[in-house]
Amino acid sequence: MPRVCILTTVHPPFDTRIFHKQAKTLKRAGYNVVLIAQHNEPTTVDDINLIALPRPRNRLTRLFGLSGQAFRLAFRQKAEIYHFHDPELIPVGLALKALTRARVIYDIHEDYPQQILSKAWIPPALRRPIALGMAALERVAAWTLDGLVAATPTIARRFPSAKTIVVRNFPQLSELTPASSNVPYTARPPLAVYIGRITTIRSASEIVAAIGQIEGNAELTLAGAFESPALKKRLTQLAGWQRTHFAGWLNRPQVAALLGQARVGLVLFYPEPNHLNALPNKIFEYMAAGIPFVASDFPLWREIGEGAGLFVDPRDPHAIAQAIQWLLEHPAEAQAMGERGRALVEREYNWAREAEKLLHLYQRLLS
Description:
By secondary structure, the chain is of the alpha/beta class. It is 43% helix and 17% strand. The protein contains 14 helices and 14 strands.
């Protein structure tokens, strides 16, 4: 049974893409899967061994301390394939490639050079030099490592085609389904939900402000983690916070249960360079759950979900409020949008197709 070691120093151990999709897919295909990630203690979940990394005190200790620990733990695994998920682990991947006979895969979730240009915590004068440095480091990885897995076609175009596959963040059909809800769509309360990291550039303030502008008794549930205590404090000072419930981080069954109660899903990213061609996981999860969405008005997102939701300026709380209110006041049309979204997921936007591409890459590298 080939041994696979998956590494992340940034994502939680039970990240949807890393654990629930990729690691479980590999385990079902017969691989012996080990995951190295931040956690309180070593454990085994769904026959996947989790090796715990300590939680860093801050970003600097993660960047300069955790990577070294991840390398030492990974090297001990004697795996046939190492599969890492964070750009800060590129040096670790290069070291594993140089010091072992294993195949090494870099999984690229974002356009990181573009993302760096929007990082608020990086001084503006340093963003472009750091972005250029990241682009250079990724070029070294692209020509040295054995395989590259890109989350979107746009990301894939930056890397050598012979080594690169696209594995998109499409949902698993069995996990999110309208049939799993005990509440018919038109009988649900007027609830809009946002699931994901709660950040400024994902329109957190605009979403909370919007729910405060909607007539009637509409409510909002936020499920995820705040980027900072300061952002949470700002949101609590908005009028819409009185109609907002903060659910915190939810596991996969809890996400499914929440979507089974909701009428509208929200996925509103600012038009930052890294966002315009992104394929956000949540837009597909809302479609899989059979609920309409309100999303940023980006051309790619319209192309993907036309007819399954409404598209607005993510920086305009009034436009967001109008879209949510229209969906709440037109339940029959909103339900039809949700059904169209579910049909798109069943036909095209589902994990089964992406899993086949991942497994084919592994077979090719091991043959």
